[in-house]
Amino acid sequence: MLRFIPILTIVLMIGPVSAGLIGTILPAFGILPALGGTTPSLEPWQALVAQPGLGASIRLSLVNGLIATFVSVAIVMLFCAAWQGTRTFHALQRILSPILSVPHATAAFGLAFLIAPSGWFVRVVAQFTGWDRPPDVAIIHDPWGIALIAGLVAKEIPFLFLMTLSALPQADTDRTAQVTASLGYGRVAGWFKATLPRIYPQIRLPVLAVLAYSTSVVDVAIILAPTTPAPLAVRILGWLSDPDLALRFMASSAAVLQLLIVIAAMAIWIAGERLVAVIGARWAIDGQRFKQDGAVRGVSAVMALVAAGTVVLGLVVLLVWSVAGFWAFPDLLPRGFSLRLWARELDAIGNSLTTTLLIGIPAVVIAATLVLACLENEVRTGKPAGRRAMFLIYLPLLVPQISFMFGLQVFFSLLGLERTLVSVVLGHLVFVAPYVFLSLSEPFRALDPRYGQTALCLGASPTRVFWQVRLPLLTRAVLTAAAVGLAVTVGQYLPTLLIGAGRFATVTTEAVALASGGDRRMIGIYGLFQMVLPFAGFALALLIPAVLFRHRRGMGTQNKG
Amino acid sequence: MPEVAKNGLELHDVRVRLDGRELVAVDLTIAPGEIVTLMGPSGSGKSSLLGHICGTLPDAFEVTGQVVLDGRVLDGLAPQDRHVGILFQDDLLFPHLSVGGNLAFALPAHIKGRAARRARVEAALGSAEMDGFYDRDSATLSGGQRARVALMRVLLSEPCALLLDEPFSKLDSGLRSQIRSFVFDLCRKNSLATLMVTHDPEDGAAAGGRVIELRG
Lengths: 561, 216
Fold this sequence. Notes:
heterodimer; A: mainly alpha; MetI-like fold; 2 domains; 24 helices; B: alpha/beta; Rossmann fold; 5-stranded parallel beta sheet; 4-stranded antiparallel beta sheet; globular
């Protein structure tokens, strides 16, 4: 049984992606029998090309995606280079981990409330300049998409940071840093010359996932990106949601175009990697020490802190808005506070929390079971998953959601599973499982294999070794992975919206739906409620092992999550 | 299980190879109660040989020859069915279980009843001069206590042979001779065919049995 689980897992990852892509590509060429499309044609493409501002939409998606990814990667690498192994590093590590649990949409709303013309930052400036009305400039939805880039960077930094963190021990980085320092290299140069080439291959897939996400993001873009025209993915969602069903054909060809944009972005990125590798190989051995790197180190710390601080401050401003009474510009705080809206929304919120859990808990339980079974199978057969299998598990994160979610919806309706809980859970599973795998595989593989060998030689069956030795030893890692998975399902916007066809109102779909209305108090409430479940998940992941093993001192060091 | 003759551990021309390179080759029989020491530099495949005997060696290794324990051929058996105990240089006490829990984990299921099982574990603790340690967190033990619990844990699983993988190399030198004689005495008392690998000549001398030098 166990040995079929890896195949099953890959089928559950690849199946929906391929079914979804086929279900998108066929309508893109005019074939969608349900809507009367039976003959192949290029009409959808002609209609798409005729759309005004298509070039600008493409440019926004491609350029902003690449810039956001580059800036995130650069800040994370620079910060790790400058501070790895120091107290600052560990302090930031503690701030960034909880930030990972903040859903993208919440972070984007928080950022919007900070930088909008009537946001906190401008209000602070207004205290000195004496403005009595907000400046008339588009700071969010700015035509260059800078707000979108900022929102993506603030949220991707924690992810890339944690991915880098789990790659660091494999490169023996602490001792490498000592060696480069003793050879006279500055911290940053030593890290870039000796450590980066060893860890970059480990974080490459997560980086490409960030690139695919940034190039095709929908929810953050609805909140922060330019609107005339919007990035392509946002416009596709608009066409898909249009009451005119004929637009679905054009939307499908646009979704295929979106896939091509992501592929182009990856090609550009990979070409960039090559270039950096060639130049870097020469640079690494040219003997330049860069001993004076205090300024670079300072800048990198400031950038990382600004990114983390923005998300945290954004949460605070959401909280203030959610209880704000009358709040005039340029006051820093509202004149009064009221819980009236919270009380009014409580029932509705309760319902959307229930729906969110109804989708999230099965998705997380299935994902954790599959991942544990795959990893346990690795231990028993002694064969770790190869790079190719890893790539397959990552595939759903590398393909733009909008390019296969519509097709998947078509596919599910063929099966008669349209708008059912089963199909929405499967849709979420595609994204939850890779993250659970990412989170759990490292601690699982790092567990000393001799625990299992000892237990076997004491006469315990492999099943007993799993349930009574490996699983208890990994309690915290498993719960942390489940919390990561929960945060992922809570944050899902497109799969819930498209596959559920609007039937499943989760905290995230509700919150993003509020974006266009601009009611800041309601956005504050729903934005915060998006946080509640992921945060509770991570809190439980810390609390449960602490209570369970309160008399087991050895579990503290053993069980790093 | 019918009573079988105690012939000890027989290694018939066992050769362990990795990527075509022979790591170790042995042909020897270890009588019950005998302690044989394999000496060799690190990387000489000593641990791989022990892994092969207890059945946990990864498939990547090619092994030829036959391993027989008390007349039973072990090759192909699952590790849990071999009745071969192993001690590593780390004690590997399970940190999520109490001292008593660690020992009860090893106690075979045919000893039934909570009271009976507890009594067996308490007796084992008594023989290691660790009365009253049943509910202790294993992380709070001293190095010597941990080593003794690790040995008692193996013995409670009723092995027919015992493998020692540099078991004393991480102990303080003061503690080392004390734990050595504790382990060796119990091996003889329980008539265990014992195979020890080490690179410390004193281990071999203290064991008082045959010492076989492996080439590097």
